[in-house]
Amino acid sequence: MKNFKARLAGILACLLLFIVPLQADAGWNASPLPAASINTVFGDSTYLNPEWMTKKVTITWNGNTWMTGMDAFKDMPVRLTNNNGAIDCTFLNTAVFQSYFSAINASIASMTTTAAVPVFDNGAGSYIRISGTQHMEAVSSMPDWLAQMLHNLILTGQCTDITLELNDSMMTQVLDSGTVSTSSDFVLAGTCTTSFQTSGANRSNNIVVGASRLNNLIVLPGQTVSVSDTILPRTRANGYKEAGVYVNGAHTSGLGGGVCQISSTVYNAVKNAGLTVVQRNPHSMPVSYLPKGLDAAIAAGSKDLKFRNDYTTPVVLYTDTSNKHLTVNVLVWNQELAGRSFKLWAKQTGALSADTYFTTYQDGKEVSTQFVGTSRYNPYREAVSND
């Protein structure tokens, strides 16, 4: 039996050696697109190199490896566009990528779940503590990273395996259960409340779901937070529903509609707490829940609200959505503030424009006012249906 298996293995190896050169000699050429752009699937060998189906994606972290074949992605919908003679490939749905990284995160979580420990304790009564457990996982933008990586490789004509070692910037700590508590000298430094009382059930759901991802959020010194990443991709699997969104300068509907009210409320709260905003984009059209110049739009892959903690100690965000009002509170150690307070405000300069300013106070007296920027908007417009 052993001799038979050995002979069979030898025959198969010879066949493989024989088959591969035939495929290479036969070659493969993409057929020209029949239109400026078409929708198909990743495994469509008419336009995309079938060699992709033999390649692999390998993710590693701390000596652990997760591998999948590209053929697992063959049925993913894509839009192909002619880009100066090259195929430009955009993934229309990344659900399979998300499933791949969800499996990786489940594995990492099982290895990293620990009892929560004090986050900050100066030994003299000042503290931030977590009750419950916590674990590590890859940031939620990893599926988008993989889609962009494949897009770039296909555009340049490369057909290769993809490997990635997860580093600290690609990992985040997740609180599984419990709450964050602070000593009394962590004070409310910044707050903002906006109303969603006129919102429908789906939009209200999206605000509640997204805001819950920010509740009990601890931002460490020097840490930059992406609101878009923190509230997770706007998918049904993550609890989001169809509601109104702004797309291409018009009002339409989409998954996760309403989450920009979260980012806008956070924008005001963190600025009022003296945190540093490193990315903020105004909406294409005015919003109803905040004055012009004080909004902050998010859109996966293009717009985000990112802020950084430049204090020497952690800060804590709490959110509340009771009575259809969204409140974001930011707690800062009183010694960091040393009598300072802050205010983000805006002055409307036209029907569709506003200038934004940031004022710093010391013991209640104004010491400086900085010009933040000008926001310009388009008139409100409903998207035209193609039906």
TrEMBL record:
Pfam families in the record: VanW
Residues of the signal peptide: 1-26
Swiss-Prot/TrEMBL keywords: Signal
PANTHER family linked to this entry: EXPORTED PROTEIN, EXPORTED PROTEIN-RELATED
Protein name per its UniProtKB record: VanW family protein
